[in-house]
Write a structure and sequence with these properties.
SH3 type barrels, extended, about 800 residues, alpha+beta, 12 helices, 8-stranded mixed beta sheet, 4 domains, disordered N terminus
């Protein structure tokens, strides 16, 4: 049986050599061609094959499908006999996913009688059953404080013994010339009634003299020790039947994201196409080995979630106080519409129990959002107020210590306590724990995790040997022509079979794979020729005059190329690297990988004033269309001795339109035009792009004046035909304005006569009938009669003027309604 090796990246140049295949160190594979995508169970049943017997009741993994969203699908298949029980080992982190996705089938007529797994109550709840009021990580002072009242024997460095019942453990400050020293002091009450105090030093020994208390401490330490074993969960599947049968189990589990990385080998001959080789980095962090499994890698992210089904939940019961004088019945209240807040506090210490000041404590919700952050005080204590009730991840960091993180910490309404202990170490080391029943586990160097190694060595053949010797070609590469490296890799069959999987894409490895637990592997998934043009790519967004060396790749294969990193080998030498997003079959994409030092690009913009290009008059509105013209000139200088093809990215603005008579783009991307420009050695070329943007302005014809018409003429926004029509409307508007002024003047004269008549009538009322007054009355009467005659004339003139004005307004309305012009200037 042979295993697929996790090859190092540099194997690209050597893995296809015939000499390497003949002399390579023995690797383990079990070749099994699989033309169709059946599960392990389906294949066995379809062919009537007998799956190998299940060793010692263990059901092995036969198929693994890894998804890009961090979920893996696992199939176990094994042989059982009679009413045999089989087991599968998981970690606690896997158990929640397993419980909500587990499928168990007896494939030969038997029946599944049950599935059992070991479940543990949360450690905090189990500790609460003890008489000792201790948390999960007490300091020495906290431990001794919990023994208050117990009989102890304390022996100091000098050998002096002190016996009695524990009264207290207190911190004391001692002042000296060197500053303040804080020590712990223990106080005992002796049999004679004396209170004796002694200092706790590293040389002080404390013995518990009471047997019952020794048993209680033993129980406490046993619970703490048992929590370390909780990360392993064993699930037992019980079946009932007769004879030999195949048993099938499938489930999903959280796994590390598989990563994709590519190599693009550019040919040395012009008639050859570039070679694309793709690799997948796979990490096995589940509870068992993947021995001889079918491995599929799916480029997609089906929806998945976490539900803590494995955690034991307890209902909360109210605490009702005993009545004092009046018997009160418990009260019920309405449910809360919004969750309440809680308080969170605790302290951060080192392994010796000393407080760590200025440590950073973060509270992060299940969506990865920072909820609160603070620092510990000089006593290593911290406190958060008004933290919403919920499930959180708590991270603690301090300079000179390993970082500490605890997930699944559930806060309740009221006060909550979480204490953290930091170990000495580098900042890149981390301790990851679960606040639930999962014990702490070493994460290891974070840089190695980011690199996908996860603490395990790559499955390299001949590990520890020089590269050529490990590949079995010791020195032979030196005798090969450099072009042979590319040619030997050309035409090789891909190690994985690609195909659509619903809306997703699957890479199914042609051979079975073995990856031990807590190890990682580099497995080949793509080997195909691609269409690619070598270009230089320049975009103003880069902020530099030098363009990028790039490949304009056309995915001519039937494979979906998943997103990841890529490296380029040109002339059998490393030329650069970059990142690529997912490329579908037939899709074209630019991949940049280096800076082109042989080209310089400069861009300059010019714009012209707006000019009216079109006028439309309809339904009393005049709409003008003006045009803003912009010109952008790209100047490219080629200082190299070889020709260049430059792709210039020009912004595609939604309001601007390219000049139909100017250069046209090779393609359009999201918000970008891409123009191709060829440049000979030691030459300078220019790319001139003209664009126009329309602007619109609307005017009401009923408010047009001669001054506006004059302005339109100065701006060359109207032609003589429109000017004549607008002048006619403006003239008629001036006529209406004159008539309106006449009407207002006549009305003013009428109002003045009315006021004078009112004055005369008041004077006539004041006359008493004397001869002189009679003469004055006659005079007033004649004056009133004359004014009445004037009023009749004014009213007649006003009526005539209003009629003329209304007629002019009607003519204006008719002129405007009948005016319909649409012309280009």
């Amino acid at each position: 049986m042979r295993k697929v090796p996790a090859l190092l990246c540099v194997c690209l140049l050597t893995c296809n050599l015939a000499s390497a295949q003949e002399n390579a160190t023995e690797v383990k594979h079990q070749s099994r061609s699989r033309d169709k995508s059946f599960s392990a169970a389906a294949v066995a049943e379809a062919r009537g094959e007998a799956v190998e017997s299940t060793p010692a009741g263990k059901l092995p993994v036969r198929r693994v499908v890894l998804y890009k969203n961090g979920v893996g699908y696992f199939e176990h298949l094994g042989r059982v006999r009679g009413s045999q029980d089989v087991h599968i080992d998981f970690t606690s982190a896997q158990l929640n996913d397993v419980l909500k996705s587990l499928t168990v089938l007896d494939l030969a007529g038997g029946r599944i009688t049950g599935v059992d797994y070991n479940s543990e109550a949360p450690l905090a709840r189990r500790l609460a059953t003890l008489r000792l009021a201790l948390g999960e990580k007490p300091s020495v002072s906290e431990f001794l404080g919990a023994l208050r009242g117990a009989r102890l024997e304390v022996r100091g460095a000098s050998g002096t013994a002190l016996a009695g019942k524990l009264l207290s453990v207190e911190k004391k400050n001692h002042f000296s010339a060197n500053g303040t020293v804080v020590t712990d002091e223990i106080s005992l009450v002796t049999d004679s009634g004396e209170i004796r105090t002694t200092e706790l030093t590293p040389a002080t020994s404390v013995r518990i003299a009471e047997k019952e208390m020794q048993i209680e401490v033993g129980r406490y330490l046993g619970l703490i020790a048992s929590s370390r074993d909780q990360d392993l969960r064993r699930m037992t599947v019980s079946s009932a039947g007769t004879g030999d049968r195949n048993l099938y189990v499938s489930y999903i589990s959280e796994v590390p994201l598989w990563k994709t990385t590519y190599r693009i080998v550019l040919p040395t001959k012009a008639d050859k196409r570039p070679l694309l080789q793709g690799w997948a980095i796979v990490d096995n962090t589940v509870g068992e080995d993947w021995n001889d499994v079918e491995l599929s890698l799916v480029a997609g992210a089906p929806h998945s979630f976490i539900q803590e089904l494995s955690q034991a939940y307890y209902g909360r019961r109210p605490v009702v106080a005993l009545p004092h004088s009046v018997a009160l019945s418990p009260q019920t209240h309405g449910a809360t519409l919004e969750p309440g807040n809680s308080q969170l506090n605790g302290e951060v210490t080192d392994p010796s129990g000393a407080a760590i000041a200025n440590a950073t404590v973060k509270v992060i919700d299940q969506n990865g959002q920072l909820v609160a952050q603070t620092s510990t005080d000089e006593d290593g204590e911290y406190e958060f107020d008004n933290v919403p009730v919920g499930n959180y991840r708590i991270e603690i960091e301090s300079s000179g210590f390993q970082s500490y993180a605890a997930s699944n910490f559930q806060t309740q309404a009221g006060s909550n306590t979480f204490n953290g202990q930091l170990r000495l170490g580098a900042a890149t080391e981390a301790i990851e724990v679960s606040a639930g029943p999962v014990s702490g586990r070493k994460v290891g160097n974070l840089a190695r995790l980011r690199a996908g190694v996860a603490g395990g060595a790559l499955h390299a053949p001949g590990a520890g040997l020089p590269l050529r010797e490990s590949m079995g070609i010791a020195g032979k590469t030196d005798r090969l022509e450099r072009a042979d490296i590319y040619n030997r890799g050309e035409g090789q069959e891909a190690a994985a079979q690609g195909g659509e999987l619903g809306d997703l894409f699957e890479y199914k490895l042609r051979e079975r794979v073995t990856i031990h637990k807590n190890q990682s592997a580099l497995v080949p998934i793509v080997q195909t020729d691609i269409n690619a043009d070598r270009v230089s790519l320049w975009s103003e967004s880069l902020g530099m005059a030098r363009p990028l060396r790039a490949l304009w790749v056309n995915n001519a294969s039937a494979l979906t190329l998943d997103s990841g990193s890529f490296s380029v080998l040109d002339d059998n030498t490393f030329a650069g690297e970059g990142l690529v997003e997912t490329i579908k079959p037939g899709e074209r994409r630019l991949l940049s990988y280096a800076t082109d030092l042989g080209l310089l690009v400069d861009a300059k913009s010019e714009s012209q004033q707006q000019q009216v290009t079109r006028v439309r008059i309809n339904r009393g509105m005049m709409t003008t269309t003006s045009e803003l013209r912009e010109k952008k000139t790209y100047t490219v200088r080629n200082e190299d001795t070889t020709s260049r093809v430059v792709v210039i990215e020009h912004p595609a603005r939604p309001d601007f339109k390219l000049d139909e008579n100017g250069p046209q783009p090779e393609e359009k991307a999201s918000g970008l035009y891409r123009f191709r420009l060829s440049i000979d050695p030691k030459k300078t070329e220019k790319l001139v792009i003209n664009e126009t943007r329309p602007n619109y302005a609307a005017y009401s014809l009923s408010s047009i004046t001669n001054d506006q018409v004059d302005l339109f003429l100065r701006q060359k926004s109207i032609n003589p035909e429109i000017e004549k029509a607008l002048r006619a409307i403006a003239a008629k508007k001036s006529e209406v304005a004159d008539l309106t002024a006449q009407v207002q003047s006549l009305q003013k004269a009428i109002d003045q006569i009315f006021a004078d008549q009112g004055r005369l009538r008041e004077n006539m009322k004041a006359l008493k009938g004397s001869a002189e007054e009679k003469v004055l009355l006659q005079r007033y009467t004649r004056q009133l009669d004359e004014e009445e005659t004037q009023l009749d004339g004014l009213r007649k003139r006003m009526k005539d003027t209003e009629a003329r004005r209304d007629n002019a307004n009607s003519e204006i309305a008719k002129m405007i309604a009948e005016l319909d012009i649409d012309t280009a200037l």
